[in-house]
Amino acid sequence: MAWDKDNLKKIVKAKIGSYKFIIVSNREPYIHRFFEDEIRCVTPVSGMALVLNIVMQICGGIWVAHGSGEADKDVVDFNDHIQVPPENPNYTLRRVWLTKEEMNGYYFGFANEGLWPICHNAYTRPIFRKSDWDMYRKVNEKFAKIILEEMDDNEGFVFIQDYHFTLLSKILKDKRPDITVAQFWHIPWPNEETFRICPWGDEILEGLLGNDLLGFHIRHHCQNFLDTVDHSIEAKVDWEKSSITHNEKETLIRPFPISVDFKKIENMSRQAEVEENIKRIKKDRRLKNRLIGIGVDRIDYTKGILERFKAIDRFFEKYPQYLGRFSFLQLGPLSRIHLQQYKNYNDEVYHLMVEINEKYQFKDWQPIILRKTYFSQEDLINYYRLADICIVSSLHDGMNLVAKEFVASRWDNDGVLILSRFTGSARELETALLINPFATDQFADTIKEALEMDEEEKKKRMQRMREIVEENNIYRWTAKILSEIFKLGLEEI
Ligand code: ADQ
After folding, report:
1. What is the mean pLDDT of the chain?
2. Are residues 78 and 171 in the same domain?
3. Global confidence as pTM
């Protein structure tokens, strides 16, 4: 069955019935900000928020998340609720308020300086502070209290997002064993040797085993998780069934490769104004009549932006015939800039770009253009469409949605995707040109190969990737997860 919004909606509505459906994440799907004297609603730069918003529009219910916008409090009702999406409200956003101290300890500290680096093989040292851990625990308890309040006496499901809430499912289940709790882990799960340095590793594992269902993007991360538990705590690991029983409670461990709304992106990409926008963007003298490469990522050390720039440098060194003929456009909004590691990384990216540009630029041409701004999905599609090549060079990534967005937008079957082997996406998009971002010379040669690929080969590779993303779209991901959740509380869809 081909999954789309309508068939999924029908099935879900029939199944959910009177059950309450609650999604929990740190990041909210809509943020209210002050712009001069008006309040505007913006969407965050987050793969997770984008896809979960689609799920909520299908399932309805309540999304509990941190209210991070400076105007967020001005638009909620007395229950801290606001109906969203703003243009066509069909679910409730419940905002949770966190103090600066809570954010520093729970989010910037433990989640992003501890768990984020330990889960990514990006060779950035994790930092574990006891004070951050205490705050992380406190915030997990705070979210649990609010979720139970929202659940009230209803039967229902709670679907938790990511590494910010490793303790939440256990707290919920201890209080309400009757509700079904599932969690999706959007980033990689490391191997046992890596994870064991976390001082509170056992508590995290026990916390996660409060879930009835725990999902990762790929089987390899599921296996890493099973192995970590097997070596760390008293629990029965059933490798055959891919499940763990701890304190007489079973948790199923399953892979669910996340995806994008293929049809929506393709339709947006077919709009007539896209052609107009491409012409306008290409008028920039630095891009005019040149081959164009793009990169689209938050400025994050896991995304391999420095390795990408080094490969571009090597490419021009090895193949000077491309000087003036190829420009690389990096679109990258700043991320987690409160953290020293991110400040440093942002500086390094900028300085490396300047160094490479100074080495090669002449007249009106420069090798790398860096735009650190936020783009709407419509804007991004113009860039996906105008690119001759798209480079995704993450050092480690759970999935990577940029690769799939690029493919979904290329209904013209043109364009070449260069994709890091260390992304979850590489398991599905096998006809991309796969690279090791650390192998600079091979990476540089792959850029040349991509730019020189003949039309037939490009078409064949792109068509294959498009078939895969079209079939394994976001509705299929949602259907697979809900099917597993319903099997636990209701019958399967
Ligand atoms: P992220 O680390 O956020 O997600 P990714 O999956 O690539 O990484 O998603 C990034 C999203 O941000 C994409 O939808 C992209 O369009 C958007 N984006 C990037 N640059 C932008 C810009 N300049 N302006 C506006 N939007 C921009 C985490 C994990 C991933 C996993 C996702 C989903 O790290 O491995 O794929 O969750 O599970």
Report:
1. 95
2. yes
3. 0.96
Contact between residue 227 and residue 192 where contact means Cβ atoms under 8 Å apart: yes
**303 and 403 share a domain?**
yes
Mean pLDDT across 449-462: 98
CB contact set of 164 (below 8 Å; sequence gap of 6+): 25, 26, 106, 107, 111
306 and 326, same domain (yes or no): yes
Best residue among 48, 345, 381 to mutate for probing ligand 1's pocket (most ligand atoms within 8 Å of CB) is 48
Q: What is the pLDDT of residues 402-412, one digit of tens each?
A: 999 999 999 99
Is 275 found in the same domain as 160?
Answer: no
Q: Which two tokens stand for residue 444?
A: 């540089």
> Could you tell me if 139 and 230 lie in one domain?
yes
How many domains, in total, are found in the chain?
Answer: 2
Domain membership of residue 408 as a residue range: 262-471
What's the pLDDT score for residue 490? 55
398 pLDDT higher than 80: yes
Residue nearest to atom 27 of ligand 1 (CA): 45
Closest by Cα among 457, 398, 403, 411 to 434: 403
Number of H helices, E strands in the chain: 19, 18
Ligand 1 pocket residue status of 49, Cβ below 6 Å: no
Read off the pLDDT of residues 268-294 as tens digits, 9 standing for 90 and up: 999 999 999 999 999 999 999 999 999
Q: What's the CATH number where 483 sits?
A: 3.40.50.2000
